[in-house]
Amino acid sequence: MKKIAVLTSGGDAPGMNAALRAVVRKSIYEGLEVAGVFNGYQGLIDGKIELLQLGSVGDIIQRGGTMLRSARCPQFLTAEGREQAMAQLRRHAVEGVVVIGGDGSFRGALELSRLGMPVACVPATIDNDINGTDFTIGFDTALNTVIDAIDKIRDTATSHERTFIIEVMGRNAGDLALWAGLAGGAETILIPEEKYDMPKILNRLRRGTERGKKHSIIIVAEGVMSAAELAEKLITEEKVDTRVSVLGHIQRGGSPSARDRVLASQFGARAVESLLRGNVKTAIGMKNHQVIEYALEHVFEKTDDGFSDFDKGMYTLSKELSI
Ligand code: ADP
Ligand code: F6P
């Protein structure tokens, strides 16, 4: 193998740049040429491919977003689009591709491997929803952003003795909401993995008020319902002074945490090693504090409950600690 390409795709995540830096530096260290593909799969189809040097990835380890830009690319969902992408890779003599992104991007990578292109996939999404890895790049930074917001909201919630509903991202996964709720001391956490019970939520609020609690923080994952919908239900059932806060895309930005930078560096370098060892469709991940490689198909295997590696024990703990 003489030359590989790297791209970032799907929703961006803090730490993508650190992963890109690791891929480029490790490749050059190993004597490989490395090309950057701009704008995800769209750039692959359009041939926006440039050779990267050591200096190309200088001063980016601390930056959020992705220097290569990202995109969602409907054209890559078609066989014709993917053929065009393959033609570009052949034209640039690329023999392997590192895809940094979420599970959608991994599906795209699997399609590339079916066309004969070796791929190694680096999980980067704030949703932490990729089967087979305990953590994805960007999750820790987003979590800290959410915690910072909860702490601030708690101040004003206390002053005004209000209930706040905070909506967090995560698509169909509840990890961000669950971890943020636990670390932020929320009274109630609603996640897609667990059915919610409106009378119980109301009861908990009432019990809190009776005990003299000055505020209540409810975290709702966007995959359950919007904060506005939940507020509507609360206000209809019970006259609670409620405000909503939708954190939105601030969760996707910002300088990556130390933890995300380290994870990104480990994952990026391991992806290059994996390609060099001749693996053709691999996902990189972290299990029990060890960096691992596993079959890309495992990401798409259905779990019993339909959710990726959900930590039920953590959900139970969050309820026990917020009585
Ligand atoms: P993420 O990678 O963050 O989950 P998306 O789900 O939007 O983000 O996927 C990113 C891109 O990956 C899509 O815009 C598309 O180009 C490509 N992709 C997603 N699913 C597939 C698929 N089944 N086949 C081929 N390409 C796909
Ligand atoms: O997958 C990352 C994510 O931020 C999800 O949490 C969210 O549902 C989605 O992307 C938002 O996508 P967009 O940036 O296209 O609005």
Strand order of the largest sheet: 3-2-1-4-5-10-11
What string gives the helices and strands in order? EHEHEHEHEHEHEHEHEHEEH
The Cα radius of gyration reads 21 Å
> What's the count of strands?
11
Low-confidence stretches: none
Report, as a whole number of angstroms, the end-to-end distance: 58 Å
- The CATH topology name of the largest domain reads Rossmann fold
Structural class computed from helices and strand pairing: alpha/beta
The helix content, as a percent range, equals 40-55%
User: CATH top level of the largest domain?
Assistant: Alpha Beta
Global shape = elongated
List keywords for this structure.
323 residues, alpha/beta, Rossmann fold, 7-stranded mixed sheet, 4-stranded parallel sheet, 10 helices, 11 strands, elongated, binds adenosine-5'-diphosphate, binds 6-O-phosphono-beta-D-fructofuranose
